[in-house]
Amino acid sequence: MRGYCGCIAALTFVATFAQASDAAPTRSDAGDHWQFAVAPYLWLPSVDGTMRFSLPGGGADASTGPYDYLQNLKFAFMIQGEARKGDWSFFADGIYLNFGRHESAVNATNGLFGPRETQQSVETSFRGTLVEIGGGRTMMRQSWGYVDAIVGMRYLGAKGTLDATAFSTTSAGVGANPQVDVSQVQNIFDGFAGVRGRVSITGDDGWYVPFYLDLGAGTSKFTWQAMTGLGYALKWGDISLTYRYLAFYGSGDQLVQTLRFSGPSLNVIFRF
After folding, report:
1. Which UniProt keywords apply (predicted)?
2. Which of 29, 82, 88, 102 is deepest in the core (most CB within 10 A)?
């Protein structure tokens, strides 16, 4: 996880030369010169899923979340951006989330948490760094807006921690096993492809609806992301309120079996 903060710091430097993904110009007079912008934003997703931990004698699937931002969030950092020239664009997005301990449930059929045992005081914590880098080309541009085709790479560095005590019921009574503290890390690299753009809903191009959809795979068996909402264009940039959903689906003995982020996002986009 120490390296993840370094990735975010590097992304911040890159993103200062970038334009937010829903801030691309809609007019044909955008020209062939480079346009840049940067967009710090606040995304408040509900984070939940299942993590598979390796334990002595077997494994355990532990639910994670949904985390409460007021009680569980320790730190968050979010920024996105893009550089655009004509119909071509390059974009980047970075997120770091650190959630403290949260009550969870464990499902296991062997090992330390066997079928004869019931888990008590089970807690999980989660840290994640998300970095997305990609490019796109405008495939359609009309008076109502534009549509880009995009491709890119998504990286998720996830760290999960399981703290639990198992109590087994036997014919002799109830006995407690030692406390279990397990931390595991997984680095996920997924490629993706999709579309993004915006649709103007007023004649002056002030109010608009941004949209985004991608599908991908790689380390994950499947991943996808979607976003839409409402935005308003100003002289210095844009302000938008969107709803964003991001999901990862793993397989085998991967730490991340399922991981879902969903919630509203407030974006302030500075263009230059």
Report:
1. Signal
2. 82
- For residue range 216-263, list pLDDT tens digits in order: 999 999 999 999 999 999 989 999 999 999 999 998 889 899 999 999
Confidence of residue 8 (pLDDT cuts 50, 70, 90): very low
What number of residues does the chain have?
272
Query: What does the alpha-carbon distance between residue 233 and residue 269 come to, in Å, rounded to a whole number?
Result: 9
Closest CA to 21 of 195, 202, 222: 195
Measured CA to CA, the distance from residue 232 to residue 192 in angstroms comes to: 28
Secondary structure E strands in 201-255 = 207-218, 222-233, 237-249
- d(CA 134, CA 136) in angstroms, rounded, equals 7
Calculate the alpha carbon distances from 225 to 187, 259, 261 in Å: 18, 12, 9
Alpha carbons within 13 angstroms on the beta-carbon side of residue 169 total 6
Question: Residue 170: its pLDDT value, please?
Answer: 52
Tokens of 255: 């730490």
Over the stretch 124-153, which tens digit does the pLDDT of each residue have?
A: 778 889 999 999 999 999 999 999 999 999
Angstrom distance (rounded) from CA 248 to CA 224: 7
With left for phi above 0 and alpha for psi between -120 and 50, is residue 51 left, alpha or beta?
A: beta
- The tokens of 147 are what? 């549509």
Q: Is the pLDDT of residue 15 over 50?
A: no
Please give the DSSP secondary-structure letter assigned to residue 32. Answer: S
Mean pLDDT score, 164-179: 56
